[in-house]
Each structure stands twice: as C-alpha cells, then as structure tokens.
Write a structure and sequence with these properties.
Layout (H helix, E strand, L loop, with lengths): L2 E10 L4 H12 L8 E5 L15 H14 L4 E6 L7 H7 L2 H10 L3 E6 L5 E3 L11 E3 L8 E10 L3 E3 L1 H4 L16 H11 L4 E11 L5 E11 L2 H11 L8 H7 L8 E5 L2 H4 L16
Helix pairs in contact: 1-2, 6-8, 7-8
Length: about 290
C-alpha cells in the first residue's frame, strides 16, 4: 500500500543537473538544512575509469549552493573515509573537491573536507545489532542534518548500493571488508546512528558493478528525506523488487522509510532500465 505521507521525487534528468535538482526540492516541498550540515558523497575509488563509480562534484555543488542560500552562515562538512580502493584525501584532490572547498573558503563560506580515517575516535552511546557502544570518528559526534549522495549501482553483497549502503563509508577503518560478513547489520546500525535527512541518487548514469562494470544510461534523479523510500524507488527503477533486498527490508522495519512511498514527478515505469543482478550475488543479500 502506498504511503502517501512518505514522498520521493523522481525526475528525468538529461540536461542541466542543478535545474533538475532545484525542481526536485520544490516538488518535495522544500528543505531546511540544520548546521553543521554533513554531506556524505559516495567516493569509492581513486580511479573511476567508468566515470560512473563516484559522485560527480556538480551534484555536491548544487546541494551546497542550495544550503548556503537557505543559511549563508551554515557550516558544511563533506566527509569520506579511506577504503581498500582509495585514500579519501587523494580522491578529494583528484575529483575536484579540494579545489572547490578552497574556492568557497576564499569566498567566505565555511566548507570543510573531512577524512574520517584521520579523525580522532570517540565512544558513541549506541547499542545496535552489530555495534555495541562503538568508537567512531569524533567528527560524527556533532552534526546537524546529514545528506547521503549516492549512485545507482549493483553490489554482490547487497544487490544494490544507494543511500543506505553509502553510510558504510562513514567507517574509518581502511580495510572495510572486515565488516562484510555482517554487512546488513552494519548498514542498519550506521543508518540508525547517523540518519540522513536528505537522500540523493544521481541516476543519470548507473553501473552494473561498484567500481568496474557496465555503465547503464538511466537518465534520472531521485531524492527524498528517508533512505529506505529513496533506495526502494531506485531499486524499482533498476528493475529490482525492494521487498527482496535484505538491507532495505530490515531498514524499513526500523523506521527508516517506506518501501512503497508516494512518487512525485515522473512514473517509475517510464524511467525503468533493467539492470542485471550482480555476478556472485550472495544469498544473504536477498530474502
């Protein structure tokens, strides 16, 4: 049954991204960011040879511009951590994030790039399915709103990777594969500890894969305020059933959104592009 109180915007996006993004925010009814405003873009590799694995800087630029229009004094923190396939600082440099942040700082804006793998750790009062009072980056202890910006991609451990899975990148440990055996519990705990209030999927291009794979032209933007709702819509656009995807179902059972939200803008069927299931898909990824 459609949850009419939970809304997701789905818009065709083959032209100007900023124009589409602002139209999406308007359809959503606006968005009032709380400072310090954290942006977690999906930067998963230091060598994005497909051009579809990392969030494009222009997506972050559109969001930052909007936030600063709403609150010119907002403190904005763009966060990523080291992982097996990249060093965050090098990714910030290579993909233009550092030059962008420095330019905004020169203009008087408070925009900071944070490598969570270099942040001091502090203990969080959280008792979840996996994490029991964990030590995590201190930079995460004082946040206002969090925006999760992801891409439409497949993943052998989780079927799809979107706004929910993107929060996995908050973990400071470089060998993040350490958590793979409990990835569903880890994703759930991270999203409960650090709930995103704005979720953006840049699905102009998708990827059958995480870093390497087959690019897929989708041509749309998905955004909303609940990660389950956004990821469920993304999954349907990709030709998958969110009701089969374990981490989405478990997150919905913990109040992180609806798997059947009201979709505003374009119809899912009009924009759906069938993705292949990831090779080596783990049985634990689906229900």
């Amino acid at each position: 049954m459609v949850n009419y109180l939970d809304k997701v915007v789905l818009l065709r996006c083959r032209g100007d991204f900023d124009e589409t993004f602002r139209a999406g925010i308007d359809l959503l009814g606006g968005y009032e960011p709380r400072s310090p405003f954290v942006i977690k873009p999906n930067l998963c590799t230091g060598d994005d040879h497909t051009g579809c694995a990392n969030v494009k800087l222009e997506v972050v630029e559109s969001l930052v511009s909007y936030v600063l229009e709403q609150d010119p004094g907002a403190v904005i923190r763009i966060m990523e951590s080291d992982s097996m396939s990249k060093y965050a600082d090098k990714a910030f440099e290579r993909y233009g994030y550092r030059a962008y942040a420095e330019r905004l700082a020169d203009e008087g804006a408070s925009v900071e790039l944070i490598n969570l793998s270099k942040s001091p750790l502090t203990r969080f009062n959280f008792n979840g399915d996996y994490f029991k009072h964990p030590e995590l980056p201190e930079a995460l202890s004082s946040t206002g709103d969090i925006a999760s910006i992801a891409l439409a991609k497949t993943h052998s451990l989780t079927m799809v990777t979107g706004a929910l899975k993107n929060m996995f990148g908050l973990l400071p440990r470089k060998d993040q594969a350490f958590y793979h055996s409990s990835i569903h519990e880890v994703i759930l705990d991270l999203n409960l500890m650090f709930r995103s209030s704005l979720c953006i999927i840049d699905a102009r291009m998708g990827l059958e894969g995480v870093i390497s794979g087959t690019p897929k032209e989708v041509g749309c933007l998905i955004l909303g305020t609940n990660p389950v709702s956004v990821d469920s819509t993304m999954a349907r656009v990709m030709g998958f059933e969110p009701e089969r995807i374990r981490h989405i179902v478990e997150a919905s059972e913990h109040g992180l959104g609806s798997m059947d939200p009201k979709v505003l803008g374009d119809e899912v069927d009009a924009l759906s592009v069938r993705f292949r299931e990831p090779s080596g898909l783990k049985k634990s990824a689906v229900l």
